């Protein structure tokens, strides 16, 4: 039997790692389900971010208070990551869902799911959103053991998945403790630093300077503790990644509420969005191409009726 040579494309993790190593700035909008991810891909973003708060809201209808399990987060991340094999997905993994064994298992599951990067934090397992008060953190040794377990798991399975380390220490312990935690995580092999809840422009500039040349991520959560800045400003200050977790959630809430209020008031829908548009956003044309290439005509025939 003749051997078949296949040129396999780089994994999304490898793609993201190369972008970071080359100094490219990465802007990743927050998405929370398949439809929001499809829209972000349609707009043309080069990376996506799966928000934990959005996953909790969409899967459970609940605030981000640690209700999501590893299976919840991995399932959502896998579905989003596999909508595009070329657009890297950065995903939340909360606290890693346990001790070193669970963190290692989480790392392996996210790698198999096609996720390009994840961020791991230093709250206790019953965590809460980073922009809520009264967070409880684990000690430095426990935090470092989580990071080390993720790094070792990545090496064992020879993956390029990018490990982003987040600290929530700023609110309770201040800047210097936060910096100490990020440096300790960097020293055991983490790839990118993430200071949650940055409180000022000066603090944003300082963390980039103090961690240079290590890449740093900016989490832009509007109407919270972090000042609203543009991607251009974040890039100018030296951040290499900016995630915007609420951009699709906020837009969806406002648009859905307006449409529902109109329906309740008038009894009539008020939308120009057709089923055909929905299906095309969700990959109908690509599915038709696959159907046609395999010699099946059912979806090709459907196309002519849209």
Task: Report the span from N to C terminus.
Answer: 44 Å
Number of strands: 8
What is the makeup of the main sheet? 8 strands, parallel, barrel
* Count of separate structural domains: 2
**How are the strands ordered across the major sheet?**
1-2-3-4-5-6-7-8
Subunit arrangement of the protein: single chain
Quickly give the structural class: alpha/beta
CATH H-level superfamily of the largest domain = Phosphoenolpyruvate-binding domains
Strand proportion:
5-15%
CATH architecture descriptor text of the largest domain: Alpha-Beta Barrel
Helix run count: 14
CATH class of the largest domain: Alpha Beta
Low-confidence stretches: 1-7
Percent of residues in helices: 40-55%
Q: Name the shape in a single word.
A: globular
The CATH topology of the largest domain is: TIM Barrel
């Amino acid at each position: 039997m003749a051997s078949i040579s296949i040129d396999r494309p780089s994994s999304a993790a490898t793609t993201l790692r190369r972008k970071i190593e080359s100094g490219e700035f990465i802007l990743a909008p927050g998405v929370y389900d398949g439809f929001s991810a499809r829209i972000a891909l349609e707009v043309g973003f080069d990376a996506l971010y799966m928000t934990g708060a959005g996953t909790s809201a969409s899967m459970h209808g609940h605030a981000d208070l640690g209700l999501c399990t590893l299976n919840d987060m991995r399932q959502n991340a896998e579905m989003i990551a596999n909508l595009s094999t070329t657009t890297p997905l950065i995903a939340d993994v909360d606290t890693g869902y346990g001790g070193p064994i669970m963190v290692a298992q989480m790392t392996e599951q996210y790698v198999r799911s096609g996720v390009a990067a994840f961020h791991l934090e230093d709250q206790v397992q019953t965590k809460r959103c980073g922009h809520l008060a009264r967070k409880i953190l684990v000690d430095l040794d426990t935090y470092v053991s989580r990071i080390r377990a993720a790094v070792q798991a990545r090496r064992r399975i020879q993956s390029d998945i990018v490990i982003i380390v987040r600290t929530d220490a700023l609110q309770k312990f201040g800047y210097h403790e936060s910096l100490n935690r990020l440096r300790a995580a960097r020293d055991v092999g983490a790839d990118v630093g993430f200071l949650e809840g940055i409180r000022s422009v000066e603090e944003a500039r300082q963390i980039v300077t103090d961690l240079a040349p290590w890449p740093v991520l900016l989490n832009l959560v509007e109407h919270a503790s972090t000042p609203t800045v543009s991607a251009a400003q974040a890039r100018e200050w030296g951040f290499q990644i900016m995630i915007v977790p609420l951009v699709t959630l906020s837009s969806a809430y406002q648009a859905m509420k307006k449409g529902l209020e109109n329906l309740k008031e008038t009894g009539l829908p008020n939308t120009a969005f057709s089923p055909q548009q929905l299906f095309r956003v969700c990959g109908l044309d690509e599915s038709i191409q696959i159907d046609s290439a395999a010699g099946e005509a059912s979806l090709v025939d459907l196309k002519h009726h849209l």
